[in-house]
Amino acid sequence: MLSAEAKQKIDREIAKYPAGQKQSAVMSALRIAQEENAGWLPKEAISEVAAYLEMPEVAVYEVATFYNMYELKPVGRHKITVCTNLPCALSGGVHVAEYLQQKLGIGFNETTPDGKFTLKEGECMGACGDAPVLLHNNHKMCSWMTPEKIDRLLAELESK
Amino acid sequence: MSLRPLILANTNGDAGWRLEHYLARGGYSALKKVIAGKVSPEDLIAEMKASVLRGRGGAGFPTGLKWSFMPKGEGEKYLCCNSDEGEPGTFKDRDILRYNPHAVIEGMTIAAWATGATRGYNYIHGEIFELYERFEEALQEARNAGLLGARILGSDFSFELFAHHGYGAYVCGEETALLESIEGKKGQPRFKPPFPANCGLYGKPTTINNTETFASVPFIINMGGQAYLDLGKPNNGGTKLFSISGHVNRPGVYELEMGTPFAELLELAGGVRGGRKLKAVIPGGSSAPVLPAEIIMDCTMDYDSLSAAGSMLGSGAVIVMDETVCMVKALERLSYFYHEESCGQCTPCREGSGWLYRIVHRIENGQGREEDLELLESVAGNIMGRTVCALGDAAAMPVRGFLKHFQSEFAWHIEHKGCLVPLDVQRAGSQIYVSPSC
Amino acid sequence: MLEIEIDGKALQVNEGCTVMEAANLAGVYIPHFCYHRKLSIAANCRMCLVQVEKAPKALPACATPVTNGMKVWTHSENAVRAQKAVMEFLLINHPLDCPICDQGGECQLQDLSVGYGCGQSRYGEEKRVVFNKDLGPLVATDMTRCINCTRCVRFMQEIAGDMELGQAYRGEHAEIMPFLGRTLDSELSGNVIDLCPVGALTSRPFRFSARTWELSRRRSVSPHDGVGANLIVQTRFDRVKRVLPLENEAINECWLSDKDRFSYEALNGDERLSAPMIRRGTQWCEVSWQEALEFVANGCKAALDQQGPAAIGALASPHSTLEELHLLQKLVRALGSENIDFRLRHSDFRADGKRNGAPCLGMPLAQVSHLDRLLVIGSFLRKDAPLLAQRLRQAVKKGTRLSVVHPAADDWGMPVHQRALVAPSAMVDTLLHILFALADIKQTPPQPVLQSLRPASQDATATDIARELAEGRNVAVWIGNLAVQDVRGTEIELLAQEIARLAGGRFGVISEAANTVGGWLTRAVPGAGGKNVHQMLESPLAVCLLLGAEPGYDFARSDASRRALAAMQMVVALTPFNSGELREVAHVMLPLTPFTEMAGTFVNMEGRAQFFHAAARAFGEARPGWKVLRVLGNLLEAPGFAQDNVLDVAREVLGEHAGKAEVLLETGLDGRLQGVSVEGRRPRADTLERVCDVPLHFADPLVRRAPALQRTHDARAPQAAVHPETLARLGLEEGAHVRLTQGDAVIELDVRADDGLAQNCVRVAAAHASTIGLGAMSGPIAMERV
Fold this sequence. Notes:
- By secondary structure, chain A is of the alpha+beta class.
- Helices cover 44% and strands 12% of the residues of chain A.
- Chain A contains seven helices and five strands.
- In chain A, a hairpin with a 5-residue loop joins strand 2 (110-111) and strand 3.
- The longest helix of chain A has 12 residues, at 93-104.
- The mean pLDDT of chain A is 96.
- Chain C is globular, with a radius of gyration of 28 Å.
């Protein structure tokens, strides 16, 4: 399940830590596994990461369930996480969330029937000055979201 | 005006973060000075002490003192930078990593010189993954230029530095949870003692500082500790990055001299949005007790002033709320956050944070009971000081702060089963949302 | 020493002591859930918060180190306020339905809530529900009751050596669970039931079958492995309902292996033999004790008259008590025979008559933690003696360096520093390499009979092991079941003794069974002219007294044991069970009481004799073996069978030590070999050979009949394990169905690839219905695709 390329990437992460501390690479390894498994972590991927890092499976599972950017169920091709925490909400985060729900026809933690979009509610992303903010597939942050910008974003993602 | 950029001075947005730009701004001169001058760690720490640089992550612990706790002598020692910025309202470290990552690298390298650390990690909030990647690039630039790694600048001094990303857990901003996370575990804080200076990462002596703290170091070394202290006020040295968000016209990061009046900061941020009336301000990140307008307007932005006012400077994250905000709803959202982010390790926080949220949620939804306010106060009090880490306190403090200054609004809610601030007014300002799934 | 004052009591404690430990020393109880003296400190439950002078907040006693002059109040208003606050938090999401909880009456949360809880809950919100987990056949879950103290998680990781449980998710959603689809498979898993302070983890076999206060309890001793774990046997109406550990720091500490804990189910099973039975033709008939014993006596007399005493013999299980083994050998010898053996799984008897005393571990169990170097030879240590392995695991964590010479690299849940993975036939050779490398380092020659055996070449691993041992200051060399039971067991033992001697360390044997050492002490082995078990089966006896063993399952050569016993004139089975195997070969079955229904003594691997009493009345007409043998002795008019009670019997072996709950014997435990040597045979690399373990839940008649244990991962049906390269060489692959042949013994099994096995070996477990058709536990074996 882990490709040779993924293993190479994981090896680069392992190299950051002292000898005998492979486990330190588990967060990166899970991220890498998630990236190449359509954005989520099936049980087998977790097992493979465990085997690769010589960790007990349940220890890897603990990590995968503790940090909320790991997905344990399938998600759409585009996961959109909207911050609804107080500072964002004060600047229209709620409106953004509502607009997205209406545009996509789904609620939080739901995926569009075509499997393209999943909507998630996020906690503080540390970018409150850019509120409202959202994350696309965990890594791309979109700032100062307005209905117009959301329309553009969705149109762009729709074609990907 | 007290705008006094230091860390962010002359940075040029996304176009000025690279090594060449930093060098052009005089970057790495402090490191060169330290290495060329073979400045002793003791002198370096003395300089840091003189600057009264207090930890910028929120706790405000004097940096020089913290460094002095590291055991002397050879052996594996670690340095960790806490860039796991996730306290609602805080986004200053993001700007540092975005616009001036080399200041952090230089600051950490100087700190390594002072503490004898051989290896360091910068733990970066998972949600700003693009900046994690940028930091990795900056590290590579520094390594290529001989400013990092083995035999730095041709000296005998070596220091390895790497980036480690989080992936969605607020609690990892707690320093021992951060260490656990780097070790590849759940981010559950450790009980102290032992303190990281004796038993930190991989059980070795470790110093952990905030991004802004490290980024300040080169400037302190260049201008001297006393000069840095003089930028602020006694016991509150230097400049500080303030993240201002919420109902202001120009939210963003402002680097000010410590001790700048709040009113000035508000003005810098363009004043309250739409010319509305200021209602309340959370001055130091979401866990700091909220202050009503009349109190905050008299405060200066530094550790001592805000502490005297019954709140705290924390990370310098200022959340501004105008008259359209329902304070029950605001607290509900914050309580939900702490409930959601509790690591689950120790009983009072695991059980208590959800209890607090549920009570506030009930009140907000018109199901408040007469005894709820007393219960909230009591539950918050039962969490405070009884948890492994400060997250328990962080969940309790906003509750106590909101009740202290806005008790009548809560009481009104319970009595009238609805908001004191009319819904259309809230809607016009901003409606705060709490997930119905919880 | 540090001075501390707890609740006004002054005391002195060692540096590094925590407030909790100090309070325990002072006899002050501090409420707690997550703290456990054998586990790492978690400080997560917060129940042990106490007030400390000058500390602004209440501090957790379990994690707070004592400082000099510290003043602590454990029951001050401040402390109690903190404790009550924590109790309230623990209870808000905990079901308040103790009457339907299996833990009721022995629940720490229930007990402490009496002192620290409120009469009424202030929590008016919805309570949390956590789905139950399938942890396998032994541990039941009621996860909504879990208070997340993580004792179970820490136990599995730290004591059991396998992190089979974790705390997944976070915050209020945190839950204790195994990895998806996994169960608790450790041989020590049952201990989490004891550790769980609430009713989240309970015993599946015991569940809802009795309340703790209805049970009578009696101390006993485990009849299984050589550790001799101390038990609390709990009974209701003379039926054993549950077995719990009795704390004994010198032996089992506060733990039990699952086998010790759950084998009791067999005591209540359908196969218990309730009355003596005689086979008439093909029919088995219940008869009176008198008739049965007369039948036996007459059979013995007839054999004596017609074939002489050498036609009579006895074979006994090493799980029998000292008293049973003693009277059995006494009876055989009184009849003029020396045909007695309890070493049913041995195959090398060249050392008979050549050792001074009983082979044993050579050190107290508690001293294992002091070792700095240990060499283990030919042992399935983890499964053969789970609690010894546990002790070693803790020692390894503190710095003991472990080397292993063994054909299988099974995971012992601890790091192995050096490992020689060699086929059984190559073990002698490997040990010679180690011995001579060690001799060179120490510049001390091995004993003269070995000096001509210096290997021509060097072996890197063997040299590394020798170097390891040479560096040690507190060294031991142990041999385990595989070594002892090997066809060259004597040579392996001699070399191990020599290696230990040259390393300046101690030699030890990891006893196979609860009373292996007792077997030696009672001389339940053939004397001059007598037949050992192998010989008794080779040229069958006329009469065999078979004590507590089952043909096929308990012998080194299962096929031969079944065939030989079936050919005897009279096989007298002394057995607690109406066993199918016994019905095949025996002519009379005498119902014996198992360990819970009689008094007796077991001598464990360290030479500790432990006397225990009956915990329950005998089932049906079952009688203690010693009584049956005494009556038989009388019927056969043998001298010396006038003992009034079990102590009289024990005294004949142990003298003044008889009847003592626990005594570490000092004499008779010198197992050193004299006058044996090593043959210079080279291992044959071209033929396949058998590696044989006796899986822990197949090892004796009791565990084999314990239903829950039989459903565990450890009791799954054996497969033929082979190294993948060997497999490839043979043109086979994992999953292939093969025919295994040893002489005329043939069975069929599926193949499993195992790269933790030496080359050219086929690992087939013994003592399972699917493998008893096979032959010797070691030696050549053929394998071909079916």
